[in-house]
Amino acid sequence: MATTAEQPTTRPIAAARRRLADRDGVLSWAFVVPSVVYIVALVGLPFGLAIAFAFSDVSAGDPSYDFVGLRNFRRVVDDPVFWRSVGNTFVFTLISMALIVLLGKVLANILVADFRGKWVVRFLVLLPWTTPVALSSISWLWLLDSIYSPIDWVLRQFGALGPVENMYWLGQPGLSMTSVIAVHVWRLTPLAAVIMMAGLMSIPKEIDEAARVDGAGYWRRMFEITIPLVLPVAAIAALFGAIFTFTDMAVVRVLTRGGPNDSTQVLASWAFYRGIDGGDVAQGAVIALFLFPLLLAAAVLILRAVRKIEVR
Amino acid sequence: MTNGFGTRRSRREVLRTAAIAALGAAVAGACAAEEEAPGPGTRSGQAPRETFQQPRSKLSGELTILLWSHFIPSHDVWFDKFARAWGNRVGVKVSVDHIDLAQIPTRIAAEMQARQGHDLIQYIATLSQFEPSVLDQRDVVEEANSRWGEQLALCRKSSYNPATDKFYAYSPGWVPDPGNYRRSLWRSAGMADGPRTWDDLLTGAAEIKRSQQIPLGLGMSQEIDSNMVLRALMWSYGASEQDENEQVVINSPETVAAVEYMTRLYKQAMTPEIFSWNAASNNQGLVAGKLSYIVNSISAWRTAQESNPAVADDTFFVPALRGPKDALAAQHVLYNWIIPQHAKGVDAAKEFLLHYTANFASASFQSKLYDLPAWSKLTPELPNWLASDPFGAQPADKLKLLNEAIPWSTNIGHPGPASTAIGEVFSTFVIPNMFAKAARGDATPEQAVAEADRQIKAIFDKWRAAGLVGG
């Protein structure tokens, strides 16, 4: 009896579920909503808040909101350190990206090669990316220390430095920017390498073999087959890297705190110094907002390039 | 695999040896760490007896405290027990969080924006930039004055804003900032008793660097010690950021002269390392025996007592160096305790501050004479401790000069108060950047001073418009 009594009620429910599951519109919304909520909550709201703060007098010590128009924008653009930070952000990003893409490609070639212990090598290569940036930067802080730098010690052993000489890696503007870029490249190259490795592995082996049969050498195959086919993936790696680099302040914060004399200040670190350390949250918001058009332009340019390559 | 002695070892043996070595290193490290922090009074001296006075009202609930990780670790061990013991006695659940001093302003900013967090927060420099979001502690200061006499002027000026007539912070203690010098090095330069003037410093430090390749260490970096010592130089030259009436006066011939002096000092006696320093760098340099002179509290020397006794015994102290106009040093640390407006345990916070102040003799002793009181009546034994160090100074009277530290010490913002604007100038490192620009040759002293003037005026204008700066 129980079975017969159940059948009429369960059938319509199952049928209703099937109908619901068959409706593309409902399903697509169900899949999209979590992402939309996530983006609105963690990207949209902070972004809106930053815009609101940029036109206010909100400070670290006084969160009350008063509208002040464009006053913060005028103050920010009148500040020479802001323009130095803009310049440094481009230098930091462009040099880092060039090195990351180049070294990532070299590393990816090594990683796809078949040799004993390749899993250990892959693990070691990924370590810089998986190590928390604060931890790894502190290790670098020691490596670049003005008194105890092991790098200086090695240079001393090879006679490149005198017995009491030091490089002062973080004490001179050129060297400190070089150090910041080097640590950032060290940190991001594994990510680029893994992305490019995926690209390399997706190239059908037949194409490479056919080129070999036709007598193409290593460099010809590299420039006429491998690189063109990996280029869309490399562009994605570059896009990720550029966005990470544009918005990164961790390496600067830990290694140089923007010094010496603001010479390694980038937009993200300057926004933090003005907004949080300096207590002027409104000015910090203005500086951070300048990142948005730059990032948008970078994203659009790279995605267009990827599309063009794909169409071709 | 072949080892250093020519015998072959299996991979398993190598891994086992490495594991044993790592374990041994970890155990040795732990033992070393334990040895590094002996409790106060273990060598000599009697810790003062703690006092207790019933709170003025019945207390309950919780009290959350945020403060720095003290440079003298034994202080934190004592403080945590002390705070909890008080809480148990008065019926308040006390919890204490210590974080790195550089993170405290960031943490305060986050808590202010979230309008929730700790009830009581301590920092080692003025927190005037948070004035709009903290409670006025006039009642605590007045109660303390009625119990123990008049508060030390430099502590008052570092916690009171005359423009708003508000005690944005409570300042029960401070730390002087003497010169720390290596006697053996300075003896060879003909100054066994260390430099007494800024001119002595230039002459002696240049000679030591030339003859012994050991530089001088005064920071020009974006960190707190650079902020202190460079202001000391400015005051000694008769320069300052503001006057008594909170008007910006940094663009003066005196400031230019101070910047010119520092440029000479850098070129003749220092290395570029000072542009990259953090707050611990000069300590590390002194302890490592790599610096001839620094301006710091006694913490670097206390560290050396444990880790490099030879350097500690060779380190001596001098008061603020005399310049053309004055001989002044900034306080090295100026304790600011704030109660945010979001605090829930306000009564408990105020009562705890009074209890802590009443026991400041313990704070001084447990910090190995690092912390000095804003009410001298509270530490009657302090002159004797400084004259005969209970913690093993060689010679024992090495710290005696700190008994006379008040006349040559002053507050950030001198000759005016540590206002909100001064707080922002301090926390954005305008002064170290001004000196660094000229010393590095990125700008002439006049240009560097003019740029600092522009930045400081913008900051003052902003806070003056908000009614937080006088004049």
From TrEMBL, chain A:
Keyword Transferase: no
Keyword terms of this UniProt record: Cell membrane, Membrane, Transmembrane, Transmembrane helix, Transport
InterPro entries: MetI-like, MetI-like_sf
Gene3D superfamilies: MetI-like (1.10.3720.10)
One GO cellular component, as annotated: plasma membrane
Topological type in the membrane: Multi-pass membrane protein
Annotated ABC transmembrane type-1 domain residues: 86-304
TM helices/strands, residue ranges: 26-55, 90-112, 119-143, 185-204, 225-246, 281-303
Major site of localization recorded for this protein: membrane
Pfam family, one: BPD_transp_1
Domain of life: Bacteria
Subcellular location: Cell membrane
Classification via CDD domains: TM_PBP2
Transport found in the keyword field: yes
Family label: Belongs to the binding-protein-dependent transport system permease family.
Protein name, as recorded: ABC transporter permease
UniProtKB/TrEMBL annotation, chain B:
Key word Ribosomal protein present: no
Species name: Prauserella flavalba
SUPFAM superfamilies: Periplasmic binding protein-like II
Protein name: Extracellular solute-binding protein
Alphabetic keyword roster: Signal, Transport
Family to which the UniProt record says this protein belongs: Belongs to the bacterial solute-binding protein 1 family.
Cross-referenced InterPro entries: Bact_solute-bd_prot1, SBP, TAT_signal
Keyword Transport: yes
First and last residue of the signal peptide: 1-32
Region span, Disordered: 34-55
